[in-house]
Amino acid sequence: MLKSKFNFELVFIFLLCLHTALILSIDLFPFADVPSHLAEGVIFKHYGSNTNLFNKYYTIHYLFYPNTFHLLFFSLPIFPNVEIANKVLHLLTAVGLPILVFFILKELRANKWFAIVSFILIYGYNLTFGFTGNAVANDIVLLILLLWLRTINRNTNHAIYMVIISILLIIVYFLHAMVALFSMLMMASFLFYKYRNSSIKLILNSLSSLPLISLILYWWFFLQKQAETSTQYNKQESTFAFLKSYYQYSFLQTYTKRVSFLIADNFQLFDGKLGKTVAFTLSCVIFAPFIIFIYDYFKKNITITHFRFLNESAIYLILFFAVNCICFFLLPAKIPGQEPLYERFSTMLLLSIILMGSKLPILYRVSFSYVIITLAFIHLILWAQYFFQFNQENKYFEQILPQDNTKILSYMNYDPAYRGRMVYDHFQNYFIVKKQGISTSKVIDYRFGMVRRKNSGGLPHQGHMYYRDSPRELLLKSDYILVRGIIPPRDQRLLDSMNTFVNVRNIYNWHLLKRK
């Protein structure tokens, strides 16, 4: 055990409490896709109500669909509204990660101080991109890993644990389909190794994945094709044709970008090189044990017998790491109608390295605990400032929204970034969230989604103005236009020539245009 004058339990609980207070203090999350998920939740929860016109413009596909967990969670009657439910879900996801890492380390009899290291991944790539289901699913994967380790480390009822794992695999499916596929690959590697000498046991234990496999096949070959008919995706090429071309011509060109896993979880703290430098510095603590071990091995005659990695549990850590490497380094950057893909595994890849590093003998060093604690608190302070500034800049945002929720709102966004990340892409969805209004939304045109457009409603397709998409359709079919930033000359000339909108409200960088 690492010796330090700091009490681990005190530091760990104190950090959990501080992160809890921080998350609960946030009004608007600067996470790109969160407004879309909130809008989905409000439409699902209040669909058919006489307080809105949702059933005129949207349809819902959720039965047996993946990525629908948040809809059910947000609609629970214990939450007064979707935004509070979302805050609770983010809180559970964020603080749940280091707690799960702690219990995994305890099961491994590894160094518990590395649970402190995991705090620097709390606001990871998926959570801060707004891929909330993906982030929650990652926590469930850690829980599955913990249960699997318990099946081999204790005299427990193996069958009960496998039933629980089977149920958790189903939950992962409803959280995120891609993570469900990852979980299936992870469990397959575990089972093949453990039962490599017993085909009967391998087959019997593999039955735990059968419900998940059935759900994935049913979704992919039956449900998904029905939902795609109302989206823009059906104009694109098939997934298999795209992948063939991608791996033939584009795959190798992405490898210079795949080192991004070193910075993917914290680079958005600051724009540009400063953000990447801060993120890389925070990530260095994850790799430091391996560097120190290599140094000790060659300079101080530390032998392999000091390597506490050599037991059965360690094999599963290596397999966990290998599956993460396969997904991060071999998956494509995108498929038609869905991106990003491989980047979503950066957090889990770093977590697998943390778990392996926790078994290295260098962690007897007291100085290493000081570094861990220092970086954990620096990370907390930086993210607190990040959240605080964002909420200060947008504290009056709700006042820009129209009051009439029977009208259609569209979005012309010319200033999408906060500290270099496109977090303002979907802020028009807050008209749905705050007012139960009708808004254009990218979420109804994504390939994989639960809320679809109702063709008879005639909602225009939401484009990206900063990519020079034309706002003509939005201007023709909308009652209100939410504008962020300065309208460029091209679009201003179109707006002036149509002479159908007037500016009725301005708050900082936000503007509201109303049809005359």
TrEMBL record:
Originating organism: Hymenobacter profundi
TM ranges: 57-76, 88-105, 125-148, 160-182, 202-223, 277-295, 315-333, 345-364, 370-388
Domain of life, per lineage: Bacteria
UniProt entry tagged with the keyword Membrane: yes
Identification of the protein by name: Glycosyltransferase RgtA/B/C/D-like domain-containing protein
Keyword line: Membrane, Transmembrane, Transmembrane helix
